[in-house]
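Re: that backbone. Tokens:
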């Protein structure tokens, strides 16, 4: 059966500051609750993360994999999980098709899961990558004000000027609550 899906940005959305490399990333406490809520309501929680630090040689793929496993272990302690996590390790110069706002990671997710793309959401803090991606896949986009979210709405608004967020949330937990309401799931 097709399931609703929330594509979740990592840095600035689920934790961290937005632009640092992932080795220093830690979950915001409310991010664990947000992912739990998705899991409990049978909504796919799929991580999608641009990791150009890998292409730039600032971290290795192995360091990324090790960190991701630590984060998954942390979720497991809190009885929650990602249904999948997809990573674009490239930089602009690599001309890949997966670096957000391009849609390669979403295409991969569609191959591996039975997604209800009529009930698809992207939650992220960067307008030019996350909100433009939402538009590119015809999903609803929710911009969070953590990470670089406020900057996306202010000094960087011109970088995604043709797109509007469907909702602006204080953080990922409020975003997930909005999504549950949008899907008419009672809590
Ligand atoms: Mg981000
Ligand atoms: Zn890529």
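Recovered sequence:
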């Amino acid at each position: 059966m097709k399931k609703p899906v929330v594509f979740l940005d990592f840095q600035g959305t689920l934790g961290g500051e937005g632009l640092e490399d992932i080795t220093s990333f830690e979950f915001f406490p409310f991010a664990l609750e947000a992912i739990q809520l998705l899991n409990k309501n049978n909504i796919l929680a799929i991580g999608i993360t641009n990791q150009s630090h890998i292409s730039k040689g600032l971290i290795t793929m192995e360091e990324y994999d090790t960190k991701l496993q630590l984060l998954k272990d942390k979720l497991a302690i809190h009885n929650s999980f990602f249904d999948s996590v997809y990573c674009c390790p490239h930089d602009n110069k690599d001309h890949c098709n997966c670096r957000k706002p391009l849609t390669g990671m979403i295409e991969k997710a569609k191959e591996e899961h039975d997604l209800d793309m009529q009930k698809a959401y992207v939650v992220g803090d960067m307008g030019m990558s996350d909100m433009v991606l939402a538009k590119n896949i015809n999903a609803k986009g929710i911009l969070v004000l953590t990470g670089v979210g406020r900057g996306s709405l202010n000094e960087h608004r011109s970088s995604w000027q043709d797109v509007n967020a469907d909702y602006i949330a204080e953080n990922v937990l409020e975003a997930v609550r909005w999504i549950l309401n949008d899907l008419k799931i009672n809590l």
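The longest strand covers residues 115-124. The CA atoms of residues 23 and 67 lie 6 Å apart.
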